[in-house]
Structures
1.
Amino acid sequence: MSQLDLAYAPPFSPAKDPLVVASFVSENIIKDKCSQISTDEYKAFVKSADENYILLDVRNNSEFEEGHIPGAINIPLHQLRNSIGQLDCQKKIIIYCQKGLRGYVGRLILKNNNYKNVVSISGGYKIWKMKKEDITLPRLEQSNFS
């Protein structure tokens, strides 16, 4: 699917069709270009983790101060290459950002610097925060549909 050439027609189809973008993401996961875990898998891992791991937040300092996953250390993405020696390459590294892109780039930086066991949290802090809080949708009254 990633090789489909779908017609670009502004009223009907964007330049980057969602089907093609979704297939790129799937292909990256299958080919281990982007090892990910969901927030639920992360929570389960933390509950059963006897192994030592690093939870790495690659967002800016101000984003980190506004909120972060408990236990995370913060090395902003733009400082990661210069700070790579601070991380133990023998430990499992779980990396995240706000939504996923910087976590993906951070994972590639680490992987290309001989860090073998690096995964990113799918959807980043935004999804973790949404799942952490109980989100209830308001019930619509029957009369609203009349």
2.
Amino acid sequence: MACSPARSGPTWALMAVALWGSATAQGAPPQVLIVPYQPLQPDLPDSLSDQTTGIIAREVRHGGAQVMVSEPRPGRSRARNRVEASVGRAEQLLASGREAMASGNMAKAVKRLRRAAATLEEAAPGGVDLSLLPEVWLALGVASFRDGEEAEADAALARAVFFAPERRLSPSDYPPVFVREYEEARAAVLQRSRGKIDVPSPAGARVWLDGRSVGRAPVVMTEVLPGTHWIRVEGPFGTRTETVRVRPDEDAQTRFAEEEVPEADPEASLRAGRLTPAALQNLRSRARARGAEWILLGVIKGTSTAYEIRSALVHAPTGEVGELANLAFDLDFLSAEIEVYKLAADLQKQIAAGKLAAPVSDGAWRAAPEVAEPRRDPTGPRRFRAAPPAPFVRNKPLAAAPRVETEPAAPKELPRPEPFPEVTSPPRPAAEDLTQTAPPNEPPSAQATTESEGGDLWWVWVLVGVAAVGAAGAATAVVVSEQDAEQGSLRIRW
């Protein structure tokens, strides 16, 4: 029967204190080393491990135990420290450069920002987080622009766009003249031909492109800007970084290989859904170094409605491994504080008894063998668009095409028409004769036609005009108007 939070909380708390009292009555509280809970599926949130471990550690500590959270092996910590030192140094140089800009010392600002960019790019092969790099290049572009070095400003802005192509500047943060300068640089970079980067493996590993999260492998990154990029993957095997050169209209492929999970790495072993004997020995060494008698560890499996928490308890002196109560947190962690009482009560009960309630026979705890392999998309690798489309650039008016002078072609000689036979009009009779010879009932139209017989040569002029238009090759219309009985006029529209 489910209990409400208000009633179940105190009940479990009293039980925890009662059970714990028998274990602590004869001496100091027990020492419990907690290994951070590891997610089993690659698509679970990055913060899930810290969130779950924190809730469990807080509840166990409230019960009276001395809790210590395990850290990775020293070699891995030293590498992480070097990476964090590079990022910290770059952050200091960026802040110093901005302070120099605020005081008007642009030469000092440019110098500091150059060093910040060089620090990050030199540390990139070691797996450094490059999310700060676009900020450094943008600040260097501002300093160079204010210093009057436009060529260097354009180069710095091009690098800022290269590492953060989606970014747009707000006019409220930068003056309009600089926003226009940035947009011109952005348009120039995005107009370049693109390429592809294929990351087929290691399957399930997290992938970053120049500090931007891409998701999980396998993945095909499309629309990648040409140039040198850093691909970083992180999985149970650790962190790997590779430099990839992208050329326009070409496909590049990373050389990451499927690597076996290190048998002696407890965190990697748990992410693979098991605790190997070699990893167990590693944990026992950690416990002895910290003075812990018990080791608490577990995994997180995600479902569509909840997170399943599976835990194990290790007796460090003997190496025995036993299972604890399974929990289920809702996706919003609203029930986590209630559910964790079950785990704390089971843990305190077994420690008080001095023995494990459900020991594992072979010492190799299999947390979730059914999800040990990363889930693969049956449709193939995902696709990630690395850069947005090129912005629309308004075309400038096209200049007039240069005129090419050529020698005019010799006009074709038209064949001369044969001369027409001369037509002679009969002599006009005198006025008095017309009145006598003309029929009295003849209509006026017939009389006009008789008078114009001598003007039938107008069609000859039309033929000559058409021939001239055809020779020139550009006539569009011909209009002939008859003015009188003896002549006509020719009009040509070009």
